[in-house]
TrEMBL record:
Organism: Cyprinus carpio (Common carp)
Classification lineage: Eukaryota, Metazoa, Chordata, Craniata, Vertebrata
PANTHER family xref list: CENTROMERE PROTEIN Q (PTHR31345:SF3)
A single GO cellular-component term on record: nucleus
InterPro entries documented for this protein: CAD_CENP-Q (IPR025212)
Main subcellular localisation: nucleus
Residues annotated as signal peptide: 1-23
Family statement drawn from the similarity comment of this UniProt entry: Belongs to the CENP-Q/OKP1 family.
Keywords: Centromere, Chromosome, Nucleus, Signal
Keyword Nucleus among record annotations: yes
Name of the protein: Centromere protein Q
Cellular compartment(s): Chromosome, Centromere; Nucleus
Domain of life: Eukaryota
């Protein structure tokens, strides 16, 4: 049989052992949770960065395509032949239009009903500006002769 003091000493040692084991378990649990929280944060950051990078790449690609379209449009306008000078006679102009477009009112109606894409509108505006510039230059050259 153990003495009372020995029993108290054993009880204290057992209590300390239990506390030590519990504190180690809590520490392991906290470290495990920290690791999971950090892993989640890293995964979220990775996803956010990936999505952000994809959006930037798509934006850059779209800008590049728009730039190429505008460049091509400008080149095409520069390659347009000079306008034929038609007499101001309306019937002859209408005949000429009828050869190019068999039913102009129908075409105009369809164009008005169809939403014109912004790129096409931009192309047409650039084409008109180039034509105006070419006509002005042609008129200037004709005036000098």
């Amino acid at each position: 049989m153990l003495t009372k003091s020995s029993l108290l000493a054993l009880e204290n040692m057992l209590g300390l052992s239990v506390l030590t084991v519990l504190s180690l378990k809590n520490k392991e649990k906290e470290e495990s949770q920290k690791h999971l929280i950090l892993s989640s944060v890293r995964a979220s950051r990775y996803k956010i960065n990936t999505v952000s990078n994809l959006e930037e790449m798509e934006d850059e690609e779209e800008e590049s395509q728009e730039f190429q379209f505008l460049q091509l449009s400008e080149q095409m306008v520069q390659c347009l032949p000079a306008l034929l000078s038609l007499p101001a006679n309306k019937p002859m102009l209408q005949e000429h239009l009828m050869k190019i477009v068999p039913n102009p009112p129908a075409v105009i109606k369809v164009l008005q009903m169809t939403p014109i894409l912004e790129d096409v509108r931009t192309f047409l505006e650039l084409a008109h500006k180039k034509v105006d510039a070419v006509q002005a230059a042609h008129n200037d050259c004709s005036a000098m002769d």
